Amino acid sequence: MAENFNDTWLKNYYQHFYPVKSVLKWLSYGKKPSEYLQYREFAFILKDDVHYRYLTFSEAGQFRKELERVIPHKVDLGAVYNHPPKDRLKYRDFKAEERELVFDIDLTDYDEIRKCCSGANVCQSCWRWMTIAVKVLDKLLRNHFGFQKILWVFSGRRGIHCWVADESARKLDNTGRGAVADYLSLIAGTKKVEVDPQFTHPMMEDAYLEIMNCGEIDNLVIEQKWFDSSENWLPILESCKDQDMREALNDGFEKLTTPELRWKLLKRRFDEQTRETLDERDRPDIPPSAKIFLNHLFYNTLIPD
Q1: pTM for the whole structure
Q2: Which CATH number fits the domain that encloses residue 73?
Q3: Which of 38, 72, 98 is the last residue in one of the domains?
Q4: Quick one: 249 exposed, middle or buried, by C-beta within 10 A (0-12, 13-18, 19+)?
Q5: Number of domains observed in the structure of the chain
Q6: Contact, 266 vs 288, CB < 8 A?
Q7: Which of 92, 144, 162, 293 is the most exposed place for a label (fewest CB within 10 A)?
Q8: Active site residue 106
């Protein structure tokens, strides 16, 4: 929590600006709030990270009154349970039945390949990572899973949260949520996933095309200085499994004088390979720089219990 937190200002915010009615309407999903929201847990996070859990609010006046009384520094949304959370101790079968599917993309997850900043430091170039990640994840969630009710929210620090609120997503159990995460995640920890050179997964193809066509990657590559020197581009070329191509690209990079020309050479070479492999009814390989990005895209995937 921030130091010197002003509770007077916060109380004024809850009294006059916090969109209580809109929040409850959103979380009701077309159902009567008085019936549906009695099963939804709210949690207030107080000073010194004290958690005030298992709260329920089914109408706006009650919710606002409690916000003004407690003045939480943070409001967390919990699951929808089979019994009212406030009565949880009365039931042995008390369990969560619904919760939005949430993904957390944080800039610190890119520290291994961010050349401009690291840790808490953030610049304009850093946000290109977020822009690309949002566009790619949004496309995959819609096209590969059929989800439509997707809300993107700035996390307040160095990242973005994605809330998937389709009923089918909300009712996924932990196994289903894990399956979605496994499908989307291309690394676990710092271990890179090896891609079969004879087959590129359709998800990776779609992600690659979105990265290359999103309008951000050209500027990002130059700003991150990936092709400024051999010290920077050699680690990228290592992800190319074709030794002949790797050597040809390195030789070409050495002869060129600007990172822009090296990046154009890389794209042109893989465009040629794409046409060749499509003629052979095979799947094209993905350029090394895109593989580097893909390997970090969904590193921090939050699947709530």
Answers
A1: 0.83
A2: 3.90.920.10
A3: 98
A4: buried
A5: 2
A6: yes
A7: 92
A8: yes
